[in-house]
Write a structure and sequence with these properties.
Length: 542
């Protein structure tokens, strides 16, 4: 019964530590999340800046796993070079070790003050103060969990069963390494395992071995989490695992000497586990940093790019089809649809960036815009080579395809050169729209994406009813744009601070979404014109 009580206390203390870590991470993301992400995404121009960015991001987020996942996603989008990403993770690993050192530095007396201050700030309406309060509560709970861990493990230190178990691990260092690594994977936190080892007060050499295992296991969750991402992201996580694996392999035989050296050094009394954790990551960062480029090349060899299939335009726009105009036009139409799909992805990424205040998705927008330009040129070149065998109807169809493709290319330009810089400004300055303004703009984003999907169908089917519906949507978009601008001006007259800060952005985004819709709807013009349903590009009434 006593054993069950000890296990429950131990599990509860670890759970409280993990909960506190989560609160710190959530609070910092709420208060400074955008600034942390921007700093991480842009602060990697040099090795030193990359290292410091990883260190500061992890100190803020209290999780090297979170930093690793953000870094991997940025690499996948082309925002961070792979070599710099490995340096970022070296800084992130050191950040986790510094967090352990801070938590174990004997500041438990501050727990009540941290919890009280955190509670007061948490009740503030301002997002930054509220997030900071949440983070302070998390830090207080982490410190409290360390005291609970010490109390929960006290009976274990005198337990004969625990002594036998530790003796077994002490005689089998590889098993001890694997055991600690497994615990770190289960907890998704090397810090939790280091704190647990610290509280147990075991033999110095075994302490170092278990800390090595915690570091090794801490590199596995990011590898599992990036399994569904692109190969560039997976390489970053694999490189981090390789670095920690090599470090553990080299350090394991020297665990006894390392424990003796660290014990002899005049260091602040934080415990051998914390000191070993900090020393391991310091030495590892210094040793691996110069070889970050070699590590990147190694991961590229171990995890090669998947075999690239030819782009859709290369498959469809084969010159051999030009001798059969009907086949050539069908292929050009399919290529035009493919361009529309890419433009839709651009719109979706722009909306994601707008909704989350995160400019990371905009990196993909730039890449996709280049692809739209390239595909449009391919279609134009292909249609210009259409053979003389093409009849008048086929030439007219070629012009319709060309007109649609050109309009899609204009949409891509507006997204990349208009919407993207505006959304990037919103993210960089951490601007917040009024709740009403955000709903209006997000609704227009959704309508625009849906209109593009309808336009794709109209382009292929030439359905007159759908074309008419699309034109009616253009009128509705124009009405909503005017209404949103009027409501925005009313909020300005009321002195709403959030509306004043985002005034130009609100109106610019409205304008650009209206322009995007105008180009999208143009696919309906020739269909309705043929049916004599247009009067100066407007629908007939009655």
């Amino acid at each position: 019964m006593q054993s069950l009580s000890v296990i429950l206390q131990l599990a509860g203390a670890v759970a409280l530590l993990l909960f506190g870590l989560g609160l710190v991470r959530d609070g910092m993301l709420r208060a400074f999340g955008m600034k942390l992400k921007v700093a991480l995404g842009r602060g990697t121009g040099t090795g030193l800046r990359a290292f410091v960015s990883g260190l500061l991001a992890t100190l803020g987020l209290q999780s090297s796993t979170a930093t690793a996942l953000m870094t991997a996603s940025f690499v996948d989008r082309g925002m961070i070079r792979p070599r710099m990403a490995q340096v970022v993770l070296l800084g992130a690993n050191l950040g986790t070790a510094l967090t352990a050192w801070i938590v174990a530095s004997g500041i438990e007396a501050l727990v009540p003050a941290l919890l009280l201050l955190g509670h007061v700030l948490r009740r503030r309406d301002q997002r930054t103060w509220s997030g900071a309060g949440l983070a302070l509560i998390g830090i207080g709970l982490m410190l409290l969990s360390l005291s609970l861990l010490t109390g929960a493990t006290e009976p274990l230190r005198d337990s004969a069963a625990m002594a036998a178990f530790l003796a077994m691990l002490g005689d089998a260092w590889p098993v001890a390494l694997a055991f600690a690594a497994g615990l770190a994977v289960v907890c998704s936190s090397s810090l939790a395992v280091v704190m647990l080892v610290l509280s147990l007060g075991m033999a110095p050499a075994l302490t170092v071995v278990l800390v090595l295992g915690a570091n090794l296991g801490g590199a596995i969750p990011p590898l599992l989490a990036t399994a569904g991402q692109g190969v560039a992201a997976r390489r970053v996580a694999l490189g981090n695992l390789i670095v920690r694996g090599i470090g553990c392999l080299l350090a394991l035989p020297l665990a006894g000497q390392a424990a003796a050296l660290l014990t002899a050094l005049p260091l602040p009394e934080t415990g051998l586990a914390v000191e070993a954790h900090l020393a391991f990551n310091l030495v590892l960062a210094a040793a691996i940093w110069p070889f970050a480029g070699l590590l990147t090349r190694l991961t590229a060899v171990l995890m090669p790019e998947a075999e690239q299939t030819p782009p859709i335009e290369a498959q469809l726009l084969d010159g051999s089809a030009l001798d059969a105009p009907a086949v050539a036009l069908a292929r050009a139409s399919r290529a035009a649809l493919a361009i529309g799909d890419v433009v839709e992805r651009m719109l979706q990424q722009a909306r994601t960036a707008f909704a989350h205040g995160d400019d990371a998705p905009l990196a993909e927008v730039r890449v996709l815009e280049d692809r739209v330009d390239r595909m449009q040129q391919e279609v134009k070149g292909f249609l210009s080579r259409l053979g003389r065998e093409a009849g008048e109807d086929e030439r007219r169809q070629a012009i319709t395809i060309l007109d649609y493709v050109i309009n899609l290319e204009h949409v891509g330009d507006i997204i990349d050169k208009g919407l993207a810089p505006e959304i990037r400004k919103k993210a960089g300055l951490a601007l917040r729209f009024s709740e009403e303004g955000y709903r209006e703009l997000d609704g227009l984003f959704l309508m625009t994406i849906e209109n593009l999907r309808v336009a794709q169908t109209v382009f292929m089917t030439r359905d007159r009813d759908l074309a008419r519906q699309l034109m009616e949507e253009k009128v509705e978009i124009r009405r909503l744009e005017r209404l949103s601008a009027q409501r925005h001006l009313m909020r300005l007259r009321e002195g709403r601070e959030d509306s004043q800060q985002t005034s130009s952005l609100h109106l610019d985004i409205l304008r650009d979404l209206k322009r995007v819709n105008a180009h999208i709807v143009s696919v309906a013009h020739p269909i309705l014109d043929e049916a004599d349903l247009l009067i100066e590009s407007r629908l007939k009434t009655g």
